[in-house]
Amino acid sequence: MEKTPSVTEKGKTNAIIxxxxxxxxxxxxxxxxxxxxxxxxxxxxxxxxxxxxxxLNSLVISRYLSSTAGIIISIGLFVLWIIGFMGVLKxxxxxxxxxxxxxxxxxxxx
Length: 110
Hints:
Blueprint: E1 2-3, H1 9-18, H2 21-34, H3 38-65, H4 67-90, E2 92-93, H5 100-106
Antiparallel strand pairs: 1-2
């Protein structure tokens, strides 16, 4: 959890947008392409990861393994989303527990 020294209002706004559904993440990517903001990019990477895990949960785990496991994972993902969103509101680059480091590495091109 690192406090970013130069969080701009535009960067913070775009980071907040990235947490508003998968469509918001796509919008934030487009907005961040013109003027790269490291704070926004950090949170976009976190949200891309959470979105992909959520989609995998919906398509694979809930359908083929166990609906109970899918519900538990969905609740866990919601908690991780809240942690990430609270980080944006506080102006912190707070990685989501468990997978945050991997999300930063896997999606470093964003």
